[in-house]
Amino acid sequence: MSWITQTLTSTIGRKLVMALTGLFLVSFLFVHLSGNFLIFRADGGRAFNEYSQFMSSAGIVRVLEIIMVLGFAIHIYTSFVLTRRNQKARPQGYAFSQPSANSSWFSRNMGLSGSLVLIFLLLHLRTFWYTYKFGDIPTVTYEGTEYKDMAYLVKTVFQQEWWLSIFYVIIMVLLSFHLMHGFGSAFQTLGIRHKKYTPLIEKIGIAIAILVPAGFAAFPIYFLLTR
Q1: Residue 62 to residues 65, 133, 163, 199, Cα–Cα distance (Å)
Q2: Record keywords: Transmembrane helix included (predicted)?
Q3: Domain that holds residue 212
């Protein structure tokens, strides 16, 4: 097993891990966003509340949550290791350098945008997941079954904590740039690059980088405008 360890801990191996975990997290964003859109249904929040209870109680979801957390942890740790390795490889900057001529600011600061997204993620979990699991929130009853009113929690937070809503939107802008660079880089790292399908991959990456963050930003914007 030593060759596997050596491969995964090499620079190339860690970049492969970054690519695979990054693509996995993109798929998670799609699932999470599609479920959240249930809150816009004209049923008083019922579909969203039933979905929230299922996501918090189903056994298979618990397994997927563990896999998701591991994916985030591995992605973040690998990013940190690669950043430190690059810094050690070139402790002093070049005498003459024009980085803006070769790459964008966001591509050179993926670690910074990723760190801000991580801070947001922790705040997001504390505000919604922790409050839903352990907080005292109202309940509703549908056909004799009691549900925690997650729809009420989301609406109340975004309408009353306006600073959180604004921060949420700002982070979605950073996430957009993070996805725009990371999606294409992941396929390049995996060796999936060809003149026939690379343009399509780039277009898909741009679409994901725009639509997914815009979808998440729609929640705080909508509830702020309707309060």
Answers
A1: 5, 13, 31, 37
A2: yes
A3: 2-87+105-225
